[in-house]
Write a structure and sequence with these properties.
Elements lengths: L1 H22 L24 H27 L17 E2 L8 E2 L1
Antiparallel strand pairs: 1-2
Helix pairs in contact: 1-2
Pfam family, one: SecG
Membrane topology: Multi-pass membrane protein
Keywords: Cell membrane, Membrane, Protein transport, Translocation, Transmembrane, Transmembrane helix, Transport
């Protein structure tokens, strides 16, 4: 149940990040402000929208990383007690001139 909630939260955060990045304007988009098309009459103020969206994007990305780490640890593939070398199959190496194969 908790894993499903984290998966849903992760997808929702991904969609929010995509929407926030698409809504934000680039660095060169403020050229119109110098010719009288400034954003001083907006809801967030002259620079408030950019700061608000950037701050919201920062927190959504932090939440994205947290949910990614939680999903990684909950997957059960992370364990400090096992080694990759221990999981390798044992191969038989033929000995030239011998009758029995030697296990490595």
């Amino acid at each position: 149940m908790l894993e499903n909630l984290i998966y849903v939260l992760h997808v929702v955060v991904c969609l929010i990040i995509i929407a926030l990045v698409l809504v934000q304007q680039g660095k060169g988009a403020n050229i119109g402000a110098s010719f009288g098309q400034g954003a001083s009459g907006t809801v967030f103020g002259a620079a408030g929208k950019a700061n608000f969206l950037a701050r919201l994007t920062k927190w959504m990305v932090a939440l994205f990383f947290i949910t990614s780490l939680v999903m990684m640890f909950n997957s059960g593939k992370i364990s400090a007690s096992s080694s990759v070398i221990d999981s390798l199959p044992i191969q038989e190496v033929p000995v030239i001139g011998g009758s029995e194969p030697v296990t490595k």
